[in-house]
Amino acid sequence: MIAPAMLLLALFIAYPIAESVHISLGSWDGIGSVAYRGLANYRRLAHDALVRQSVVTSLAFFLGTVVFTVTIGCLLANAISREVPGARIFKVVWFLPVIIPVSVAGIFWSNAFQPTTGVANSVLGSVGLGDGHAWLASSSTAPYATIFVAVWTQTGYAMLILLGAMDTISPEVHEAATLDGVGAAGRLFRITLPNILPMLGTITTLMSVFSFNAFGVIYAMTRGGPGNSTSILPVLVYKQSFLDQDYGYGSATAVVTTLIVGAIGILVLQVFRQRSLDAR
Q1: Nearest 5°: CA angle at 201, between 153 and 55?
Q2: What DSSP element (H or E) covers 96?
Q3: How far apart are CA 58 and CA 257, in angstroms?
Q4: 73: closest CA among 183, 187, 149, 153?
Q5: Of the given ranges (24-33, 85-94, 237-246, 253-262), which has the lowest mean pLDDT?
Q6: What are the tens digits of pLDDT across the range 14-62?
Q7: CB–CB of 164/228 below 8 Å?
């Protein structure tokens, strides 16, 4: 019964991963066979300053994106679950960015952040905060701009998943807490969050994976620049493989990226699993 699904997994997931590992152990320019070089690419990675910078950039991007996405998504889901005025409209408005292709979102916001013609500077100028900010041309502001867009595109997804988890909590529990004098913040931290911890762990893990694979948004906005200030690991893999045509080295970087993502995912799940057990 599960043979067709296992075949698809082997064909589209297991085989590409195995082939990436194989290519990472050699030198290949995209034509012919792979020239085996052992762990030479991995030793080169260990001494590559650009790779280390990309790892730091990826971790900073991951932290900024996941923290804001999950926090804002949780607050929005809680507000909609408690049926604040206009809840249905907010649910649709916040989910719309999720269905927009990431490349389209990246191009839209790259135009919005332009120094002279962008909407962002026009809005800031109208409230007296200056209208000449070079958001994507400065290494000090470009990372924040890309994190903002990543959060904008992913928050609706987190909101919808967490909203589904919140809707499984019995309304009588909230009513009893209200009668006991528990306020909105108390209900959120004492009732809602403890009851949705497993789903909160799942969505945090998913957001972690999404943030490490935010190639589309960043490449559409900055191409990894200025300099390498927004060059997360997937962008570096693309440059190494398709621009430098060093597929062996790019595959080695991709393997390391996969290991980092896997380690973070396991860590996040373990943290939330332990918190779920403590809450019980």
Answers
A1: 65
A2: helix 87-99
A3: 10
A4: 153
A5: 85-94
A6: 999 999 999 999 998 878 888 999 899 999 999 999 999 999 999 999 9
A7: no
- Bridge partner list, 35: 27
Q: How far apart are CA 147 and CA 215, in angstroms?
A: 12
The contacts of residue 176 (CB under 8 Å, 6+ apart) are none
The pTM (predicted TM-score) of the whole model is 0.89
Query: Helices 142-166 & 87-99, crossing angle to 10 degrees?
Result: 130
pLDDT at residue number 159: 94
> Using an 8 Å Cβ cutoff, are 159 and 76 in contact?
yes
Determine the 3-state secondary structure of 53 from DSSP: helix
* Structure tokens that stand for 150 in this block: 């990543």
* 47 Cβ contact list (under 8 Å, min separation 6): none
CB 185 within 8 A of CB 211: no
Per-residue exposure over 6-42, b if at least 16 CB sit within 10 Å of its own CB, e if not: eeeeeeeeeeeeeebeebbbbebeeeeebeebeeebb
Strand residue runs (E) in 129-169: none
pLDDT tens digits, residue range 198-244? Answer: 899 899 999 998 998 889 999 999 999 898 899 999 999 999 999 98
